[in-house]
Each structure stands twice: as C-alpha cells, then as structure tokens.
Amino acid sequence: MSSSIPPGMLKEMQEVGRDLYRLALVTSHGGNLSLRAGHDMWITGTGTMLGRLEARHISLVRADGSHEGPPPSSDTVLHATTYALCGAQALAHAHPRHAIALSFDTGLFVPGDLEGQLHLKEVPVIEQGPRQVEQVAQALAANLVVLLRGHGAYARGATLWEALHWVTALEESAHIAWLRGHRCPH
Ligand SMILES: [Zn+2]
To answer: From ligand 1's centre to the CA of 30, what distance in Å?
Structure first.
C-alpha cells in the first residue's frame, strides 16, 4: 500500500501553494514545495499546479532516492541536498518577478527597505551552471532565501509558512528596489 501525506502537511502545502499562486509568485504550473519527514521528504510532483494541490500530486521521496506517488519535482536533488546541509524542515521554490529581474545584474541583493533589512539582511544570487544545485543548497544553509539568476527564489523555514514569509519579503524588497530605479547596481 502506498503512503499518503499526513493531513496536516497536505493542508500546509495546499494553503502555501495557493498563496504563492494567488500572489503571482509562480505561474499556474511553476514552483515546488517540500516538507522534511525524518530522513524522507514530501515534495510536489513535477509540473503540478501549486494553486490546486491534492494528495495525489505529492510524492514521498525516501533517503535512498526512491519515491512513491507521482514523479517528484525536477528540483528534488536540490531539496534533498539542502536538507542534508541544514536543519530546515520546509523548502519553497517560486518565481518572484522583480527579484528575478534584479538577479540578472547583481551577485548579491541587499534590501534597502527596513522590512527586508530586518528579515533578510542580504540575498545571494547563484549563477546557473553545473554546480548550481550544490551552490544553492550551501547558500541556503547560511541564508533564509537565495536567488538563482534569471530563474527564481529558494526559501527555507521551520514550516512552509516561514518559507512563504521569506519569498514574499524578498519580492516586496525587490519591488521597492525596482521602483527606486536600482535596476543596474554597477
Ligand atoms: Zn523554477
């Protein structure tokens, strides 16, 4: 018999996924979410709609890499590597548009607004390439949220609600920076 995600974890994924979609932080089929469960993790299936998650869309990935349920997200190795490196219990990946726009021209986003300074301090921008998984995971061990250049944000937390907080804080700070005209920091 295959395992099914516990109702509390499902509810957390559904509500955070819906919020990310409704806040336009992912496209209809973009982004992914995971929750650690001991040495295993629950992670959204590849190509699932975060705004309309059901139990059948969520895969259980075990420590040995095997899975039950739908094909897990293409970012599964990144989630597993991050969990191996830090004490995070939850990870969210989204596509916050102002943050992505800023990521093209900087290696480190430092929020200028008070909320961003308080919560995020600074956000590393990782270059896409063969080492991006390891680099994003390492950066997440030291930071709450990290940007992958030209792609999106990865945020960690004790819960998905915390990860949602950091994604929304990042996008708010990036939007403010954009409005201030800090498109080209060099
Ligand atoms: Zn993505």
So the answer is: 6
| Nearby residues of 10 by Cβ (< 8 Å), 6 or more positions away | 53, 55, 58
Report the chain's mean pLDDT, rounded to a whole number: 95
* 127 alpha-carbon distance from chain centroid: 16
The CA 144 to ligand 1 mean position distance, Å, reads 17
> Do the beta carbons of residue 83 and residue 43 sit within 8 Å?
no
Say what the pTM is: 0.95
CA of 1 to the centre of ligand 1 (A): 32
CA distances (Å), origin 175, targets 49, 65, 97, 164: 25, 38, 9, 16
| Alpha-carbon 55 to chain mean position | 20
Ligand 1 mean position, distance from CA 140 (Å) = 16
How many angstroms separate the alpha carbon of residue 37 from the centre of ligand 1? 23
| pLDDT, tens digit (0-9, with 9 covering 90-100), for 61-74 | 999 999 999 999 99
From ligand 1's centre to the CA of 32, what distance in Å? 8
Domains of the chain and any CATH numbers: 7-179 (3.40.225.10)
Closest CA to 46 of 3, 86, 93, 95: 93
**Separation between Cα atoms, residue 18 and residue 151, nearest integer Å:** 20
